C-alpha cells in the first residue's frame, strides 16, 4: 500500500483540468489564428460583401430613379398623344365640314349651270318653234293663196 498514495498523486496531477503551460499556449494559438483569419480572410470577404451591398444599393437607387423618370415620361407622352389625337380629330372634323361645304357649293353651282343650260335650251327651242311656226304660216299662206288661185281659176274656167 505504499505505492498507493503515489499512484493517487499521479492520477490527480494528470486529470481533466491540468493548467500547466499547454492551456495558455492553446489560447495564444486560438487568438493568433483568429487575428490571422480576421485579417486574411474575413476582412476581405466582408469588404467584398460591403462593396457588393453598396453596388446593389446604388444600382437599385439608380434603377428606381430611372423608373420614376420613365413613368413621368410615359405620362407626359400619353398626355401629348391624347392631345395630338384630339387635335387630329378636330382637324378631321373641320376638314370634313369644309369638304362638305365645298361639295354643296359645287353642287349648287352645277344646279345653277344646269338650270341656266335648260333655260337657254328652252329659249332656243321656243325661238326655233316660233321660227318654224312663222315659216309654216308663210307656207300655209302661200299654199292657201295658191289653192285660192287655182280654185278661182278653175271656177272662172267653169263659168
TrEMBL record:
Transmembrane portions of the chain: 23-42
Presence of keyword Lipid metabolism: no
Residue ranges of coiled coil: 119-153
Enzyme Commission number, as recorded: 3.6.3.14
Extent of the signal sequence: none
Any one GO molecular-function label of the UniProt entry: proton-transporting ATPase activity, rotational mechanism
Cell compartments where the protein resides: Cell membrane; Membrane
Main location: membrane
GO cellular component assignments: plasma membrane; proton-transporting ATP synthase complex
Alphabetically ordered keywords of this record: ATP synthesis, Cell membrane, CF(0), Coiled coil, Hydrogen ion transport, Hydrolase, Ion transport, Membrane, Plastid, Transmembrane, Transmembrane helix, Transport
One matching Pfam family: ATP-synt_B
Family listed: Belongs to the ATPase B chain family.
Function, in words: F(1)F(0) ATP synthase produces ATP from ADP in the presence of a proton or sodium gradient. F-type ATPases consist of two structural domains, F(1) containing the extramembraneous catalytic core and F(0) containing the membrane proton channel, linked together by a central stalk and a peripheral stalk. During catalysis, ATP synthesis in the catalytic domain of F(1) is coupled via a rotary mechanism of the central stalk subunits to proton translocation. Component of the F(0) channel, it forms part of the peripheral stalk, linking F(1) to F(0). The b'-subunit is a diverged and duplicated form of b found in plants and photosynthetic bacteria.
PANTHER family (alphabetical): ATP SYNTHASE SUBUNIT B', CHLOROPLASTIC
Subunit: F-type ATPases have 2 components, F(1) - the catalytic core - and F(0) - the membrane proton channel. F(1) has five subunits: alpha(3), beta(3), gamma(1), delta(1), epsilon(1). F(0) has four main subunits: a(1), b(1), b'(1) and c(10-14). The alpha and beta chains form an alternating ring which encloses part of the gamma chain. F(1) is attached to F(0) by a central stalk formed by the gamma and epsilon chains, while a peripheral stalk is formed by the delta, b and b' chains.
Protein name: ATP synthase CF0 subunit II
Species the sequence originates in: Pyropia endiviifolia
